[in-house]
Amino acid sequence: MSLLISLSAQQPDVKNSPQIPIAVIVIRPHHFTANPETAEDNAFQNMGVNAEQECAIRAYHEVSNTIDTLRSHGVNVHVYEDEGRHTPDSVFPNNWFSTHAGGHIAIYPMYAENRRRERRTDIIEMLKHSYRVQDVVDYSGMENDGLFLEGTGAMVLDHIERVAYVCKSRRADPILLERFCSQFNYEPIVFEAFDSKGRAVYHTNVLMCIASDIVLVGAEMLRDIDQRTALLERLKNTGRKIIELSEAQIAAFAGNMLEVQGANGSLLAMSETARRALTCEQIDQVEQRLPIVNLPIPTIEKAGGSVRCMLAGIHLSKR
Hints:
There is one protein chain. The protein is of the alpha/beta class. It has helices at residues 52-72, 121-130, 151-154, 174-184, 225-236, 247-251, 272-277, 280-287, 298-301, 307-310; strands spanning 5-6, 23-29, 77-82, 97-100, 104-107, 135-138, 155-158, 163-167, 187-191, 208-210, 214-217, 241-244, 258-262, 265-271, 292-295, 312-314. It has a single domain (17-314), classed as 5-stranded Propeller (L-arginine/glycine Amidinotransferase, Chain A), CATH 3.75.10. The chain contains ten helices and 16 strands. The longest helix is centred in the first third of the chain and has 21 residues, at 52-72. The relative contact order is 0.20. InterPro entries: Amdntrnsf_FN0238 (IPR014541).
C-alpha cells in the first residue's frame, strides 16, 4: 500500500511550466471581516473582538501597502476592488481560480456558500483580454453535488515536476482532485496533516510553500511517520533545498509564502508574522536563494490566511 496516496498511475512527462507567476491578482476589500462560515475548520482564524469598521480600515491599508511594496520591487500586480459586504474572504482569490501554462484557467467549487460569491467574470475577462487563454475549465457546478476543491489553497502545485500536493480535508474532494489532475496534467499526492490538538489542516498552502529552488514545509504535522518520510523524500528528489518548519512556525503562517517575479529576478513574498517566526538560520537559507519581501498584514491574518492566499498567480503568456 502506498504511503502517500497517489490518485493517478500515470506519471507526468513534461517539465515546461515555470514555478514563478509572471503577475499576480490582488483583491482590495473595503469592508473586510472574518468569515463566520469558515471558522469551524480554519484553526488559523482568530479575529477576536475588534470593531468591524476598525478592522476593515486596517485591512484596506494592509492590502494597499502590499500592492505598493510588491510594485516597488517590480512585481506586476493587477488590483481589483471589492466594495461588497457579503464576501468576507474575497481578499483570498487564489481559492476560486488558478491559471496554468499553455493558456488554461480553472474555476473551483467553494465549501462555504458565501465564498461562492467571490467568483468574478471581470477577472476572467481581463485574463482573456491581456493573456493568451485557450480554455476555461469551470468546476464550480460541482458545488451542487457537495464536491469542493479550493484551488491553490487546497493544492500546492509544483509546476515544474507536475505534482499537486494536497492535505486531506473537506475542501479537497478526492474525486474532483483526480479530475483536475487528469485534465491539467498533475500527479496528485495526498496526505493527512493535523495540529497538536488533532485538528486537520484545512488548506495545504498553510503547510507548505514550493518555490523554484526551495521548499518550506511543516512536515512534523504529518503525524504518520511513514507519510512524513515519504513526503520529504519526494520533495528532496526534486533537487530543491528543504527547510522544515515547526507547528508553531506554521501557526505563524511561515508556510504561506509565494515566489513572485520582480524587476531584478524572483522574490519570496511572506508576511511580517512569518518572517519573525523563522530562525536566523532559516532566513539565511532562504536568502541564499531568494530575496525576501516582508509584508505586514496582521489584520488580514486574523481571517485565517496570509500572503500566499492573497496572491493569485498568473501563469499565462501575455498577448
